[in-house]
Amino acid sequence: MHLFGRSRELQALTEAFTDSVRGNGRLVIITGGPGSGKTQLVHEFLTTLNSTDARILTGTASSAERDRPLSLVGQLLGNAEAECAISHHATPAVNSSAENRRPSGPGTWPQSEPSEDETDEALWHLAQDERPLVIAVDDTHTTDPASLRTLIRLLRRSRSRRVLVVCATSGHFGEIRSAAHTELLRQPHRRVRLAPLSEASVGELLAAQAGRPLPGSVRSAYHRATAGSPLLVHALLDDSTGFGPEIGRPVAGTAYRQAVLSLLRRGEAGHVRVARALAALGPLAKAVPVGELAGTTPVGTQEAVDILNSAGLLDGHAFRHPTAAAAVLEDMDTAARTQLHGRIADMLYRSGAPADEVARHLSAADHVPARWGAGILRTAAEQALAADEVERCTDYLGLVLRDCSDERERHALSVALARAQWRTNPAAAGPHLEPLREAALDGGLSMRDTATVLRYMLWQGDTELAAQAVATLVHAHSPTEAQIIAEVEFVRQWFYGVALPGRGAPVGGLDPSGRHVRADAGGLAARVAALIGGEATDESAAAVAQALQGHQLDHLNLELVAMSLLAIAHADRPAVAAEACDALLECAQERRATTWQALLGGIRAEIALLQGDVSAASQGALAALGILRAQSWGVLIGLPLSTAISALTAMGSYADAEDLLKHDVPEPMFRTVFGIQYLRARGHHYLGTDRPFAALGDFETCGRLLREGNPSLQKGIPWRSDLALANLRIGKARTARDWAEEQLRLPGGHSSRARAMALRLLAATSKPHRRASLLRESIDLLKTCGDRYALAQAYADLSAAHYELGEYARARLVARQAAREAEACHIESPVDAHLLEDPVRQETSGSEGGPAILSDAECRVAGLAALGYTNREISARLHVTISTVEQHLTRVYRKLNVASRSELPSKMLEHRIPKLSDRWAGTHSSAG
Fold first, then answer.
1. What is the pLDDT of residue 258?
2. Helices 254-266 and 230-240: angle between axes, nearest 10 degrees
3. Is 737 helix (H, G, I), strand (E, B) or coil?
4. How many Cβ atoms sit within 10 Å of the Cβ of residue 261?
5. d(CA 796, CA 229)
């Protein structure tokens, strides 16, 4: 290994050797922190002496042999014997003194140990030889006193001999208080101090390894992590280059851990205890008396901190790299480590430290102190959950639950633990909530905890038992409790779609008119009740969206939020719902609330489907499915599944939709609205793949399930229109017409989308002239609700109706609208290509690049007239008087040379009027 940044130190050793060769005995003491390269420096120096005739004796002291007299001298004389044996001319003095002391193994010494006088004479005889004598001792600070005394006597007798003694030792050599060590330091000597490598020297080392200079940021990162310790730099290099030849930012792995532990084990036992205390304390190291934990004095603690800093492990009182701290703790015995954390927790608690700091160490100690532990852990769990540290929260609560013996307290802890786990994995909450069903029914839980258990039951599809529980809890003891249970029942009826037997849809405790709205979750429920129970208006939709924006995720019921977004979207305001959903999704992602991300992602995909963006709907639904495992979705898996199947079917990706239909779904799902939506999606897939009778069966099942559940949901789930479509496909036009008319006769209002679908199906069973009128009404409704996919289909139907009536120009004009909407949805055009081609026409005075023939106002009126709208209908749509419409048409007829209204479509095509004004096109198409 090549030395970097040590040329001056190596030069000092060379000068000392040169001086000793002249007959001036010399002592050189090399000091430096652990891992600073003392051993490597000595090795490099001794290598330079290979070309000389110097006799070299080397030995490494060890703290394990400090109490074994002359253990180091035994190594030195053993080296001399080995050299004599190789050269076959051993001196009698060495051989005679060594016969009874041949080591039986590395670092061992026979039972019949020689005296200090005998070893003195053996070394002195070597010093008298004509060859220069170099004695190199590593880790001198751990040398046994007898060996040190022998070396001191040799130094005293060799002042004019060709002897050089090199002692490599810790920078805190004086910490050993023995007389022998003190006496060694009193001998004349030269001190060579090894400082950590500078950043420039670390850069040279890295460049030599990489074969080229590396960026300054890489050099700085290595220096920052090691403080210039050569041992640690090389260890990081070993770990970092294990991933490839290129050297990037340092990676701390196995080699680095081993290097850290080797540095630690070289030190005193007290230093190791201090390092372990600092590793366990982390950022609290300056706030706690470390010496009390490590069993050392303040002076001893500071001494250990200084050594660990010089070794490159610490920066002040903190470990430079978290892997170093982890390695130090992992090296401890488990019992000792937990005991250390327990003592830290006790000290922190007595000093009044924050609950989260005490709880971290209680968790690491796996211990709950009898008097105060449970309270600290529960407080810290609440703080952890508020900080979105779900795993830490569940660790604390689980620890308290393990040692809790009170049944009611165990129930409360189980529910709190489940609530935390629900945020990221509802399946993990199940084992804590499942045993509490009976307690929830018997009133053994608080109302809030009961609501949590009921939500779990509903999530798993146990709607019957949840209904029974709600019925037994109607008489709540306080308005707050009444609000909690009313909210659960509201979600049960309207989100899961199951009505309480013998009761209507309205929920006790919630005013469907929206009065008494409060700024809490109950206020949100009241606003949703007003939206779905009455006439949907911009104000009622905005009120729900505003309530969603005014709460943190912690204070909202996830299912109620999802229902609110769907209610806004189905109230013909999908853009408002999308905006609110995007804001909540962003918040859920920031807070790593996986369950929220999954369900809101599914809702966002459903909103995209309602807007006709089938591509975004399929992608969003599939992404939501991938966030949670199937068992965590419960019955709600029907939501993203049905959205994905519907969107893929609309895109013509039948094979992908078929794969999704192979997924196992829970049987209880079909007792909820999610099962109904799944059946609808499967039915439409059957229609798309020419299986109309299978589709008919699914749609009939949807109707039966809705009638048995919450009939009020029927206006948002147009299963009658689905039946009309299926009957139309199997040739039963009369039956199809009956179902479509029944859908239109439903009381209580409709969403624009549901009514538009029914009108389109009714048009399919009507005569061409009647068909065009119904389709125009359907198109107007679809523009209102923003479903561009359905709008493209309706335009295609209207184009076909005009074509059947022989109105070819008008058919082409409408076909272009269908193609434009299809392009916006990223689907294939639903009209024949020939309808999109320009008809053969004579050259006219106008040209595409010339000025507009008609003004924007004239374009709007002419466009609607060309599509077949009456003057009165145009007046209502454009909010102008009938007289204004007539005046515009008069000017249009004159400019286009139109004799009658029937010629208008062909003239519009001839002059490419729709293309002359982007504003006209924008007005005439849906904005979503």
1. 95
2. 160
3. helix
4. 16
5. 76
